[in-house]
Amino acid sequence: MIPSQMLKGILQGSILAIISQKETYGYEISQALARYGFGTISEGTIYPLLLRLEKGGLIVARFLDTGSGPKRKYYTLTPAGQEELTQFQISYREMTAAVDSLPGFGKEESHEERDQTAPEGEQ
Amino acid sequence: MIPSQMLKGILQGSILAIISQKETYGYEISQALARYGFGTISEGTIYPLLLRLEKGGLIVARFLDTGSGPKRKYYTLTPAGQEELTQFQISYREMTAAVDSLPGFGKEESHEERDQTAPEGEQ
DNA sequence: TTGAGTATATTGTAATGCAAGGTAGTGATG
DNA sequence: CATCACTACCTTGCATTACAATATACTCAA
């Protein structure tokens, strides 16, 4: 399970990426996230996030009848949303590059300036 | 610049990884983070985090004189900290696997069940 | 009529990055 | 000697956000 704190800032961009693929709605997004390996993301997380994105002008919505069941609120990216998605991808790569360069993450590169001023026992 | 929300849950594990390499202190950690590509992480972020980790029993500290300048508080991982670091690495890989499988991240695998129930214009 | 599944929304809580502020020691510059 | 820069630590308060809990409402099957 991915801890909630690790999801902060990741979920928003991930949902933008999902919406960018095809017009979709909250319930379907939650299923897509589970399918992509994010685990079960609470609806109490997804709907407020979608409202935030809508208020922020990153996505726009329209209600569509389904013939059966409640109406669905379909979302589409705005140009600002597209831009935000691109920025997210850049930031994400920057973040993973930093973490992956950390010792013990199997992707060490450079950074061999291990200084020898190791502290001696003292009190 | 990595957005602050994206750092949540990442910073703690990253700092544990840095401490696991060698006994070190707050100021040096902030420089190491910058060197690894995290950008300038505020001291208002690092010191509270170190105190949290110490109170949580993940790290232990001892003060050492430096001969010149203020005393340094050197930190070491506890067994619980080691375990937490291992768990962080697992969660991190799980998270990046999910994000990387998202459309538009250059690492698409499987997930070709794109259903054809595309909504037709309606109102 | 009871339940499960689909679908959206709101309220309140907890976690955490960080700006802003403070303390203190050392050494160089004027 | 006064000032500044750098090292090094710490605290307070704010903003953001994932999520549990809760609510509404429609459809369909048992």
Question: Describe it for me?
Answer:
Two copies of one chain form a homodimer. Chain A has a single domain, classed as Arc Repressor Mutant, subunit A (Orthogonal Bundle). In chain A, 50% of the residues lie in helices and 10% in strands. Chain A is built from five helices and two strands, in the order ααααββα. A two-stranded antiparallel ribbon of chain A has the order 1-2. In chain A, helix 2 packs across helix 5 and helix 3 crosses helix 4. In chain A, 30% of the residues are buried. Chains A and B meet through helix 1, helix 2 and helix 5 of A and helix 1, helix 2 and helix 5 of B. Chain A binds a DNA duplex (30 and 30 nucleotides) through helix 1 and helix 4.
Give a brief description.
With 123 residues, chain A is mainly α.
Strand content of chain A: 5-15%
Count of domain modules of chain A? 1
- Which two chains touch over the largest interface? A-B, 47 and 46 residues
Please state the structural category of chain A. mainly alpha
Do you know the CATH architecture of chain A? Answer: Orthogonal Bundle
Low-confidence stretches of chain A: 111-118
Strand order of the largest sheet of chain A: 1-2
* Average pLDDT reading of chain A: 86
What is the radius of gyration of chain A computed over CA atoms, rounded to a whole number of angstroms?
20 Å
Q: Characterize the largest beta sheet of chain A: strand count, sense, and whether it forms a barrel.
A: 2 strands, antiparallel
> What is the oligomer described by this structure?
homodimer
State the CATH superfamily name of chain A. Answer: Winged helix-like DNA-binding domain superfamily/Winged helix DNA-binding domain
CATH class division of chain A: Mainly Alpha
Specify the overall morphology of chain A.
Answer: elongated
